[in-house]
Specification:
This protein is about 40% helix and about 10% strand. It is built from 9 helices and 6 strands; from the N terminus they run βαααααβαβαβαββα. A 6-stranded parallel sheet has the order 3-2-1-4-5-6. Helix 1 packs across helix 4 and helix 3 crosses helix 4.
Length: about 220
């Protein structure tokens, strides 16, 4: 098998938590007495929480510290997950379970922090991820390659033999800079075509054999078809 491992993003890829983040961000801005501007969204999706917090300070004059903003947002998203549930993306959990049963190692590579990631992991079978890399465990977040290089190193595999599944421009950039093969699954932002990049709009119906094809150098572009 060419496929050494699958490296998963979380927000927008495994779970559709972006609407929860959006609601939390709007609440934070409104509480600060500012008016929400949706033009900020493309600059935040897929970025580290610290980066997003700094943008919120800059755009809306929020006087809370970076740490206070991050904590406020995480608390709000966790509250929504507790009351509304974990919103799984179509086909994602099924593919994750199939890979686990097939013995393909999986890593979670997310810019969310550990206390939020733990809530999602509690909804999955124990050990389904062989390693977890969170935003508060790396020095440089996405789009820097460090998160994906760290995950591959933790698994003891060549990142070039891995497939990374991503939904954001910074995430795709991070995975490609690390040298992984990329399956870009559009959720809330368009992801342009690029040489060697596979693209889909959903993971529904995607199986291990599809990822093996991508790991072997094939490009599956169902958006540009």
């Amino acid at each position: 098998m060419t496929l050494a491992a699958v490296l998963w993003d979380m927000d927008g890829t495994l779970v559709d938590s972006e609407p929860y983040w959006l609601s939390a961000e709007k609440e934070l801005v409104t509480a600060a007495g500012a008016t929400w501007n949706p033009a900020i969204l493309p600059l935040m999706i897929g970025q580290s929480l610290e980066h997003s917090a700094a943008l919120l300070q800059e755009w809306f004059g929020i006087t809370l510290s970076i740490q206070e903003i991050v904590d406020t947002l995480i608390d709000a998203v966790l509250d929504r997950m507790a009351t509304l549930g974990v919103p799984w993306r179509p086909g994602a959990r099924e593919l994750l379970v199939e890979l686990h049963e097939a013995g393909v190692p999986c890593a979670l590579v997310t810019m969310s922090w550990k206390r939020m990631v733990d809530v999602v992991l509690d909804q999955l079978p124990d050990g389904i991820f062989a390693t977890v890399v969170t935003g508060d465990a790396v020095t440089r977040g996405k789009p820097h390659p460090e998160p994906y290089l760290t995950a591959a190193a933790n698994l003891g595999v060549d990142v070039a033999s891995c497939v990374a599944i991503e939904d954001s421009t910074p995430g795709v950039a991070s995975a490609e800079a690390a040298g992984a093969r990329v399956l870009a699954v559009e959720a809330h932002v368009p992801l342009p075509a690029a040489p060697g990049r596979s693209r889909m709009t959903t993971l529904a119906g995607v199986g291990a054999a599809d990822l093996e094809k991508i790991a072997a150098g094939g490009v599956v572009d169902l958006i540009g078809a």
